[in-house]
Specification:
Helix content: over 70%
Largest sheet: 2 strands, antiparallel
CATH topology: Amino acid/polyamine transporter I
CATH architecture: Up-down Bundle
Number of helices: 18
Shape: globular
Distance between the termini: 25 Å
Order of helices and strands: HHHHEHHHHHHHHHHHHHHE
Oligomer: single chain
Number of domains: 1
CATH class: Mainly Alpha
Strand content: under 5%
Mean pLDDT: 81
């Protein structure tokens, strides 16, 4: 991919926002209302605070370690070359592959009814294949082309959501927004905040573009905090308008179409259509950023010894093999697997990555910079969130819980075999050898 033209700050922010405001914002409200009730906006606010806790270390480390490996570079630099680091690298890359598959399926689910495409397995597969191939081809033209496309897709998406917020604000019934503080509702608020935490996870993609970014030492921290702040404002606005126009039972009944149903009272039929179009653009932008980020990760990890050298080599159209392998495996999962059981891998893996980034930061804070007490407090918050997430999954999704830990164990075994029989090591990587642009 063309590395000569660097991404601007606004393009990197667009990628992060595009990933965070994906399909979940259109489909998560039914579950959120069921868990949090009228405390829905507070759940989004609390999950944003969790994201800020992680963002502090990402911003500090991202301004010092310039690598498209992102958090894996932070963990390797912080914790060194070991079996755990290798296992996490496999899991991290795999989580992007699963996300590509999920976005592909989600896009087909909104696109086909919107454009009256007959619902059938072959039509679904054709839509998914066409979408993933389109954004894979877009990556042939380099990071600047991907960044520009993401900027315009995200601009359209945010414009639609802003129209929803502004138009719906004047119709809000404010009595529906009074918070409830009894133990049952507070427990629901906590559970919902953990679920919504997933909606902020895309900010980490900023660090996976740092080698292709203008002035990364300054722009990585800026992009991280600005993108989280923008997303938090939109999530709060959307949740307030939705809850102010629909009762909690109505939101639960509407389930995945809650936003579209909430738009009908003040925008009529066009509101339902507009929100559906917004969903299509949201998923498209998230997929575009995820394919780009996943390809960058595979390329960078291969350079540093995390993945086989095949991922680094330039092949068709001068694009690295990592692009084709990442997009191809995502397409394969989307076409041939039921992803419900393994979708939670993106949640559990990303939260685990966050924890080890913070541990690495804390252990080497004198070298990296930052305040010890802030990192320690944030680490406690993240560990509690991870434990609460595991508890929630155990209580509500035992199959998914088991699938997550099976995948963890599989990655550990794969890394063990890779190290034992192929002498895999990171000791000569750019990160540990100091060859990276580290300031």
């Amino acid at each position: 991919m063309n590395k000569t033209k660097k991404l601007s700050l606004i393009e990197v922010i667009a990628m992060a926002v595009g990933t965070m405001i994906g399909a979940s914002i259109f489909s998560i409200f039914g579950l959120g209302a069921k868990l949090a009730g009228v405390n829905l906006p507070w759940a989004f606010l609390l999950s944003g605070i969790y994201a800020m806790a992680v963002a502090y270390s990402y911003a500090v480390l991202g301004s010092k370690i310039i690598s498209d490996a992102g958090p894996m570079a932070f963990i390797l630099k912080g914790l060194g070359d070991n079996l755990l680091t290798g296992t996490l690298s496999i899991l991290y890359w795999f989580s992007f592959i699963v996300s590509i598959a999920l976005f592909g399926k989600g896009f087909a689910g909104y696109f086909m009814p919107l454009f009256h495409v007959p619902l059938s397995q072959i039509n679904t597969d054709l839509v998914i294949t066409g979408l993933i191939l389109f954004f894979t081809v877009l990556n042939f033209f380099g990071s600047k082309t991907v960044g520009k496309a993401e900027f315009w897709i995200v601009l359209i998406k945010l414009s639609i959501l802003l129209l929803f917020i502004v138009a719906g604000f004047q119709f809000i019934q404010w009595n529906r927004l009074a918070p409830q503080t009894d133990p049952a509702h507070l427990k629901g608020l906590l559970n919902a905040s953990i679920v919504f935490f997933l909606s902020y996870m895309g900010f980490g993609l900023v660090t996976n573009t740092s080698e292709n970014m203008n002035h990364p030492q300054k722009n990585v921290p800026r992009a991280i905090f600005i993108s989280i702040f923008i997303v938090m404002l939109f999530y709060l606005g959307i949740s307030v308008v939705t809850l102010g126009n629909l009762s909690v039972p109505q939101i639960i009944k509407a389930s995945e179409n809650a936003l579209a149903v909430a738009a009908e009272p003040f925008l009529g039929h066009w509101g339902f259509l507009l929100v559906s179009i917004g969903a299509v653009f949201s998923i498209a932008s998230a997929l575009n950023a995820t394919i780009y980020g996943g390809a960058n990760i595979a390329f960078s990890l291969a350079k540093d010894g995390f993945l086989p050298k095949t991922f680094e080599r330039k092949i068709w159209f001068n694009a690295p093999g990592g692009l084709y392998v990442t997009a191809g495996l995502g397409l394969f999962l989307a076409l041939f697997f039921n992803l419900n059981a393994i979708a939670v891998i993106t949640t559990a893996v990303t939260t685990m990555i966050y924890i080890f980034v913070l541990i690495g930061h804390y252990k080497n804070i004198d070298s990296f910079g930052g305040k010890k007490w802030i990192v320690k407090m944030n680490l406690v918050i993240l560990i509690l969130v991870f434990l609460a997430l595991m508890r929630y999954q155990w209580q509500t999704q035992k199959d998914a819980f088991a699938a997550s830990w099976t995948i963890f164990a599989g990655a550990f075994i794969l890394e063990y075999i890779y190290r034992k029989y192929y002498l895999r090591t990171f000791k000569n990587s750019r990160i540990l050898s100091g060859k990276l642009n580290q300031k």
